[in-house]
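Intended use. Records like the one below are meant for learning the mapping from a protein sequence to its folded structure. Do not use them to infer anything beyond what is encoded.
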Amino acid sequence: MTPKPNPGWMTSSEADALAARLSQVERELKELRQRLAALERLMGSGEEHPTDQTTVRKKVSYDWQA
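Structure written out for the chain above:
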């Protein structure tokens, strides 16, 4: 059983304000994603630190021998 929409639930001005706010949030989210991608490129994200590589190799060797 699906509830019927309530026509008096939200006025058009409230709906417009909500739509504008949602649009603003979507723009900000898109901008933040772009900034994050730029920071990751700048920082060389995805590259593993040499110490981490060594630790992972030792752990894999130990687990394999066990």
